[in-house]
Amino acid sequence: MADALVSPILELLIKIGAQQKLNHYAILTWKTGDAEENIHNQQKIRCSFLGSPCFGCNQVVQRRDIALKIKAVSEKLDEIAKEKARHGFELYKATDHELPRLSSTSLVDDSSVCGRDDEKKIVVSKLLAESSQGARDVDVISLVGLGGIGKTTLAQLAFNDAEVTDHFEKKIWVCVSEPFDEVRIAKSILEQLEGSTPNLAGLQSLLQRVSQSIDGIRVLLVLDDVWTEDHRQWERLKPSLAGCARGSRILVTTRKGAVAKMMGTNHRIDIKTLSDDACRSIFNHVAFHERSKDECERLTDIGNKIANKCKGLPLVAKVLGALMQSKRTREEWEDVLSSELWRLDEVDKDQVEKKIFQPLLLSYYDLPSVVRRLDGNNLGEATVETSFERVRHLSMMMLLRETSFPSSIHKAKGLRSLLIVNSIGDPWLGAALPDAIKQLTCIRSLELSGSSIKEIPKEVGKLIHLRHLNLESCRELVSLPETMCDLCNLQSLDVFRCSSLKELPLAIGKLIKLRHLRIDSSGVAFMPKGIERLTCLRTLDCFIVCGGGENESKAANLRELKNLDHIGGRLEIRNLQGGIEEAAEAQLKNKKRLLCLELGFCVNHEDGILIEVLQPPSDLEKLSICRYGGIVLPNWMVALTRLQELQLINCGNLEVLPPLGRLPNLERLVLVKVGVRRLDAGFLGIEEVENANINEGEIARVTAFLKLKTLWIEDLRELEEWDGIERRVGEEDATTTSIFIIMPQLQRLIIHGCPLLRALPDYVLAAPLQELYLTASPNLRKRYEKEKGEDWHKISHIQNVSISKL
């Protein structure tokens, strides 16, 4: 039955291909969809008999079955090759930029422009104003906005303004587009400066000629439609423009703010969409050109409705107007209105594709190729809400004032991935989602991040193929249905920043294939029982210990972390208190893939034994301890030899710090609201020299904080003394030599809110500091005040010093 359908469909594709270029990749993707399913089925078969106790009996039968399936796929591919040869089909490989870039010129029809008077005045004033740069530099003005919004038109209006023409000795217009070709740009500049195309080929000689031609001349250079963010390309061209006279300007148009920044923009002007009235004026100017008064009266009301669909984009208004010029009857206009233009089979497809999609698809071709491949096969179909049947991966960006969910999406029965972007504030999504879920039964990846949905419909449990569900930043989401736990293939669940979500589904332990669970910054108050069954977890960013109350009976404790030894990356444990045996059974030290651990205690919990049993793996790179109420830190801390960052925050009862200077890879140390009164040699991890056991004649090499680059000390209200060392670098006596190497890479020191601290140790001031910030620390401010403090000379060499009261 399936084979009987192949030939007619292929014939249809070939007929289409005879009329227009057809990328072979589209056909191959459609055809190999069956092969993909076959491979998936084979994998399931293989798994089933490999785990079967009667594997030996069934092996031959199963291998034969697989061989037959592979043979069938091969025969279908051979059939495609034969059909290709019979019809003379030629395969070609799609290039990165198939659509030709449309060139612009400086010419403009003023009568067709509407609604840009204010913006024109702003641009002209910037062009005529005094230069804000040095005498030999050129101000750069950038017009930034969406494709089709009118950046080029605005630049043309300013370029042709009478005052601008009188102000500049030379005006040059270059359509840059993509790629950014320095040779072509230089030739275009020279052609307009000298009146002829230079007979030069090398970039170096061209740029030298440009520099000579504009030397001492006040120039206006327009670079229209710039796309590249590669500063190297701009830096090669820029020096040749530096010799022009003061008051010269470069006017850039681009869709990307990053381009404006890269080009060193002095004045950025963001172009806004036009009002509906302005769009109607542009549309009417084109659509009703040379029509009789009766025709205009008969069609004006429909025309206004069509023009309102322009979303404030003048290019769309012009193209729509040109499209309607050839349509004479009211019925034809109503057809376009009801089709909402985007159903290309109901309107003039060639005009729409060439005039709208060609310029606007430049944004599509600027995407990385890996992103383009997701929807490239069906881009036209997905964009115009038609022919969804064969769409597998769909991204939808809800632009401007979208009000409804495309009804045609329900036709995409085989849809595997659905990404809905920018749906914040769109109430229709929540209403449409249940029905969409019922239809899209093959969905494997569903992305709804940032949407305004309040709940996930219970029908989601029927999406048995769903592997990835992303609900990040759905801030109004209040609940997840228990039916979600029927998603036996779910591998990732993301509720990051779902601030209204109070709990996870209680049966979450059923999701035994779950590999990634993100819940940080959500409103989730506890972890449900049964999470210990999620032994495939690779990512668990947060574990919340229940603090008792109504949730205690359904909450998991730390013991349930015991079997989750594959979790890696970052883990935060919140609300730590009591439960020492349970914490010990969590066996954090066995989680070898953990790189970052954050331990957040219930306010000022004093149990030092609890923190001892929470020993992390020795390969940990970042550790944060918050609200710990004990007086000493655990012994295991100095064993973390790969630790790169340590944060101790709100540990107000701490009386002494461990020998942190012994951590050989520590690069960043943050101490906030810690109760210590003194930082002594024990903090460095070294003994005082006079107590050290050094034999006569030996050299003692004493090191601490060898890789520390940033030291942040904030709100240590009790800190009074920061001890130095008695023998500094290179000091000797008659019997021994001691060499101290303390913080040899320290670059940044921040001290805030230490009112009792009187001085900084010399070994800190001898470090290669590049930044020093002393705030809200009156004793230090007085001691190191610029040119007045007694120890100002000790810090005067530091490049960036900031000392303030607050």
TrEMBL record:
Cited Pfam families: LRR_R13L1-DRL21 (PF25019), NB-ARC (PF00931)
Single GO MF annotation: ADP binding
One BP annotation, GO: defense response
Domain of life: Eukaryota
Keywords assigned: Leucine-rich repeat, Plant defense
InterPro entries from the UniProt entry: Apaf_helical, LRR_dom_sf, LRR_R13L1-DRL21, NB-ARC, P-loop_NTPase
Protein name in the entry: Uncharacterized protein
Ranges where the R13L1/DRL21-like LRR repeat region domain occurs: 558-673
Keyword Cytoplasm: no
Keyword flag Ubl conjugation: no
Domain NB-ARC: 135-292
